[in-house]
Structure formats: C-alpha cells, structure tokens
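Design job #97: recover the sequence.
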C-alpha cells in the first residue's frame, strides 16, 4: 500500500497547470493526503474517480485546508481536533483566529492503523504565531496523537512546518531562530518522536540534500536550496511494516513536493 502526502499550495492552481492527473499517474497511490488545498470540494476539477474523498476546508475562503483520498473507504473519518482539546488549549485566544477552524487535520481510521494528515500552523515570518504553536497547537496535537495511539498505531503525514535537524535544511546556521527552525518548533517535533513516533524517511536515508520545500525565489529548487518540512511519522509498532519512505522531488506543481511511504499489508 502506497500512501502519499502533498502540500499542493492550492489544488485549483495545480489543476489549472494540468499537473494533478500526472501526479496520480506517476505515483499510483492507494491513499493520498493533501494539505493547503485552499478550496472547497465543489471547487476541485480533478478526475480521481477511484477514490473516496474527505475534505476539511477552512472557514476562511481560499486558505489552508486538507483532504484525504482513499481507494478503500476507511472505517471512519473525523475532521479537526476534538472540541475538548480545543477548549483545553484555548485556541480561540489566538490573534490570527482559531486554528481548529482552518481545516488543518483529518483522521481516517483503517483496520490496523489511523492515518492523520495535518497542515501545522506556520509561525509567520515575524514569529507572530510562535506562541500559539509552542504553547497551544503543538501540545494539543501531541495529546491527540497520544490518545489515538492508545487504540491503534498512527501514520501521521503532512506539512509540519519545521525542519527537525541541521540535515533538514540547506542553510541551517543563518536560519537558526527563524520561522521553521526555532527551538520551540523543533522541540514540538521532538515531543512527537518522544511519544513513540518514528521519522520514516530517516529509517532509510541519512544526511542532507533531501528536501520537500523550496522558496520560489533565487532558483532555489533548481539549486536544491530547500527544507524538509513534509513528513511521514509512524508509530514504532507500525514502523516494521514500512518498506519504503520517499521524497518525490521530480513532481512539480507546488513549492512543495510529495512524500510517500509504502506499507506491507
């Protein structure tokens, strides 16, 4: 089973470029997850007829949003974080708005695992959303994942908006303390690993030069001056079933490229 995750940075833009169907034809996913769809399901023009579709769009039009497409219907699907967690961590206090209203999380339950796709809030260039990320979103999301893991293993994918280590971005030193590479964001990622999740890509590939996002400026992608901020994290007891974890840098259409895992059924 191949599961693919891709931050499309606007699904309508990818479709207008004629790059959505080639993405499907190239990767042949059994399940694929999208982040930053920036659309309602009714606004999408793709032809993914073999897939059941589950969308979670932001209340704000043209912003954020996630979707899961599956050839085999899941046992159940939930959108967002549970209301009890939202209330516990006071999401409504964020100056930019409640992140749980931004279509950031979808959970699909399958026979042997939960699949969670997430578009983690960006802390903004001025770090204006760092407090939300560090004190509210990351601990809330961690609590949610821990709750799921008590029932079944979890495969977590999406744009986590953080480079974990120096090997996960081309220029670590000048970016220390900047958005995507603050101590607070990296700490949040570490706590996911501390909860028993495994960075699947690092099971197979070490070192730098492996990125999933590139700036649109200065020919960053052609020069491979990028960041690895899109991940598949899997529960430790699911990890032995992962036979491949890949970055598909040859797939275009977004400033991110898809990532995938292959699971032995």
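Job complete. Output follows.
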């Amino acid at each position: 089973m191949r599961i693919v995750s891709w931050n499309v940075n606007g699904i309508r833009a990818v479709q207008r470029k004629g790059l959505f169907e080639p993405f499907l034809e190239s990767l042949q996913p059994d399940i694929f997850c999208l982040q930053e769809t920036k659309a309602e399901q009714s606004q999408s023009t793709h032809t993914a007829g073999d897939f059941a579709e589950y969308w979670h769009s932001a209340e704000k039009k043209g912003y954020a949003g996630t979707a899961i497409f599956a050839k085999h219907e899941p046992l159940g699907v939930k959108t967002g974080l549970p209301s009890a967690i939202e209330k516990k961590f006071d999401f409504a206090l964020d100056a930019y708005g409640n992140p749980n209203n931004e279509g950031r999380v979808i959970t699909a339950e399958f026979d042997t695992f939960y699949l969670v796709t997430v578009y983690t809030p960006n802390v903004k260039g001025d770090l204006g959303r760092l407090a939300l990320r560090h004190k509210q979103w990351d601990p809330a999301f961690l609590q949610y994942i821990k709750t799921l893991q008590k029932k079944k293993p979890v495969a977590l994918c999406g744009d986590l908006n953080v480079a974990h280590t120096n090997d996960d971005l081309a220029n670590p030193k000048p970016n220390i303390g900047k958005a995507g590479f603050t101590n607070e964001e990296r700490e949040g990622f570490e706590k996911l690993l501390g909860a028993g999740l495994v960075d699947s890509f690092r099971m197979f590939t070490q070192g730098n030069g492996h990125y999933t996002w590139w700036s649109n400026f200065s020919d960053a992608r052609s020069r491979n001056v990028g960041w690895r901020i899109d991940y598949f994290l899997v529960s430790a007891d699911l990890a032995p079933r992962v036979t491949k974890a890949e970055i598909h840098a040859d797939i275009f259409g977004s400033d991110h490229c898809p990532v995938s895992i292959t699971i032995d059924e």
